[in-house]
Amino acid sequence: MIFFISDLHLSPRSPGATRLFLQFLNGRARQADELFILGDLFETWIGDDDAADTFNAEIISALRAASDSGLHISAMHGNRDFLLGTGFSTATGVRLLTDPYTLSTAEWQFVLSHGDALCLDDTAYIAFRAQVRNPQWQATLLAKPLAERRAIAAHMRGVSESSQLSKENPYTDLQPAATDDFLREHGYATFIHGHTHQPAKHDHIVDGIHVERWVLADWHEDRGECLVWDGEALSREAITFENRP
Amino acid sequence: MIKLTTNHGVIGIELNAEKAPKSAANFIAYVEAGHYNNTIFHRVIKNFMVQGGGMEPGMNQKPCQAPIENEAANGLKNKRGTVAMARTNDPHSATAQFFINTVDNDFLDYKASSGQGWGYCVFGEVVEGMDVVDAIRAVKTGNKGLHQDVPAEDVIIEKAEIV
Questions:
Q1: pTM for this one?
Q2: In a domain, A151, yes or no
Q3: CATH classification of the domain holding A199
Q4: DSSP 3-state of A159
Q5: Superfamily the domain B2-162 falls into
Q6: Which residues of A touch B (CB under 8 A)?
Q7: Average pLDDT value for residue range A47-61
């Protein structure tokens, strides 16, 4: 089985989602062969040298324990945790993927992405993205002391939140034409992404070919969600604290 | 036998310690600790099951002990009147909450030791007071906070004891 999750936005401000993720990582996730985290595992990440932070340390050690148990974990950068680097990867055993990533299994072909790069109608964000994904810009930022980076991150989050509040829908959707081009470029593979916080399954017809696009759900304080590939089909599974039959 | 005294009457449960040793021992430990006293059946779905043992009146979750191994592969089936452990998505996450099947629920049975196939572990059976269970399954339910299928009036386990 392969699990896909994204947009957990873990931070000390979301103790519920964090607990859900730790429970998931120690339990349900261990049933899978592979876990893909398609961006924004963390609400902020100011550099791998911040691993001593107690919150980060707890997540890192849980990821390490899951990796050591035999679960293959891969992660992609989101628009929040774009500074995750090799230090994080070494500490956790989590493989960092370039976005987009083509996943070929014996049964099916997928293309994975966070999804933000296709939100071309949000020109302000695309410009911001180009800046923060620039290696030079990242190196300059990472050279600053942790305290200063923390202040910059807090400021950036404030700007982002106030701009989201002013919009009717805080998350711009993927641009349809660009998405069709993307699907064409990736061989009409089933597309899985997050970012928009609008979980759904979309059917695209590109060049007469039916292509599925699955949008992952963001996590909340009392509920997370995981997309499960069992070798035959994709299905959504709720991650909750609740006991059920 | 375990005797559950509820505000709808008495339910007698025979545990199957032979087929489900860990689940039975776990249940007995919670009974002996007094955990189930003043808990409610907080999830009642008439033609499915009645679930309880984890919440106090007011839908406050009680603290639990460590989760137990899922013994659902023991061959016992989720037939009407059987008692099984509730759990989260993690197959091995049962703690205190249990449920009584009110109909045959074959789809809850063990199929494979992977993913959704684990099923739910039956570890006992109602041997007395199935009419009480039928009275409970028929109560009026609704939403309470984030929870669905919550009885409008509390169905309380006043006391759980070994007899």
A1: 0.74
A2: yes
A3: 3.60.21.10
A4: helix
A5: Cyclophilin-like (2.40.100.10)
A6: 1, 23-24, 26-28, 31, 222, 228, 230, 237-245
A7: 93
